[in-house]
Amino acid sequence: MKIADWGRLNGEVVVFGGPYSNRQAVEALRARTCDAAHHICTGDVVAYCADPCGTLDVVRTLGARVIAGNCERQLASGAADCGCGFEDGTACDLLSANWFGYASAAIDAQARAWMADLPDWAVFTHAARRYVVVHGAATDVARFIWGSTVDAEFKNEINIIEEEVGPVDVVISGHSGIGFEKQVGSHHWINAGVIGMPPHDGRAQTEYVRLSEQGAVSFHRLDYDAPAAAAQMRAAGLPEGYAQALTSGWWPSEDVLPAALRRTHSLARG
């Protein structure tokens, strides 16, 4: 376990997850948030989309503080898959094999070394609160935590975190692809969502979080050139389902989603 201490961060902080090899999205984020004092990425810089090398370059040029996602850990080690733990034969499992192979072939040894050097977690203070940044959860880098996850599971994750890093006020996570914030007792849990893929709600915009200088949390939608990113995926021969998702706003599979977040449930609610 490698835990970075980023010290005290002053000013506005932008938190974003999952660039997912979507260079167009991260360039749009850079243009929109260049006024922020700090940028934090919750990992999975390289994943579904068509420009892993360009996306890495933009994230690093931005000066973002990055923790390792499961994709970084798997790519750095030369693994054969993304490490999400999808069940064999599910849509997510079959689709991930294609994009992971493409990403692994595209990145070089220098990029893998950068990924290998990333921290697993990071701690920092901001606006008199102590934060910890994890990718999925304390129990598993690739664990899917949702806003609907029961409080007992959040509390267990927080207990494990605090055993490792001491008391914290706020947990920031990523991985699941859908942002939320939740109060769990005296702790605040924030998932910033991802900028590389829409949050399965029928809109092409992706999402990220701003922490104001005073510590207020606000979620923001990100407009970017989604048709260009989708066209780049098609030209690279990547899965059509994810290319289509960039513009439709709907994921090609709901295998990993709890029932309340599935499209059929959303449509039934109107």
TrEMBL record:
<dbReference type="Pfam" id="PF12850">
    <property type="entry name" value="Metallophos_2"/>
</dbReference>
<feature type="domain" description="Calcineurin-like phosphoesterase">
    <location>
        <begin position="25"/>
        <end position="204"/>
    </location>
</feature>
<dbReference type="InterPro" id="IPR024654">
    <property type="entry name" value="Calcineurin-like_PHP_lpxH"/>
</dbReference>
<protein>
    <submittedName>
        <fullName>Diadenosine tetraphosphatase</fullName>
    </submittedName>
</protein>
<comment type="similarity">
    <text>Belongs to the metallophosphoesterase superfamily. YfcE family.</text>
</comment>
<dbReference type="InterPro" id="IPR029052">
    <property type="entry name" value="Metallo-depent_PP-like"/>
</dbReference>
